[in-house]
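pasting for ref
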Amino acid sequence: MPPAKKRPRNYDSARTRAAVLAQFGLVADAVRGLTPDELSRPTHLGEWTVADLAGHVAWIADSLARGLDRPPAAEGRLLPHDWPFTTVALAGKIADAARETLTGAPVAELYERAGARLTEALAAHGDDRVLDLWIGPMRLGDFLVTRTVELVVHTDDLNRAAGLEIPFDRQALAACTRLLADALAVKAPGGAVEVRIPPFAVVQCVEGPRHTRGTPPNVVETDPLTWIRLATGRTEWAAELDGARVSASGERADVSGLLPLMA
């Protein structure tokens, strides 16, 4: 008998909404104080400067508010764990839209405007409002979970590029970690490998013998930030394994061929 299909993870709506606003606010507080020299620094994201990256984070909030201004779609079909696999094809389109929307405004003004629009839009719409997105229709409640990924990942990008120490909202970090862990389980369904990302997520993946009790024969364990960097192509499996930030035991525990989930 085939294994029962796993139910999608449930996310607490109030906590997710608060996490999105909190993480955006933490970034806003940090980037408002950046000097022109700091904003002109390069990042590890192609040709993007720190200013480009900061502007993109503002666009994440602004574009969500704009999406809620448009007529709703009829039915939300995409789930949070589907979203990571849709992003690569849209990278160029997203970058173009962000430049068109944000060009010419100072960083502080971008964040003030985007933050106000986002707060107002979320207050006006419930989770069942369906967004008509480029990737397909998606419930607002589900799409907000994906915003934690964007915000956490780009917070880390900004910290590394600009030498900042922007903190991570705990709920945003948890939702981001769990969504990307669930995406791995969707990409490689099975029960042969257990991936542990304490304190936020444990998933089973990869076809093969399924353990039923005791310690699984194949275990991967890492911390949330290392997992997020692996899942989004910010670092490589071998480097994190050598640096002891990832432990992998068992003959099937090398999941490097499944990574990154997003790039």
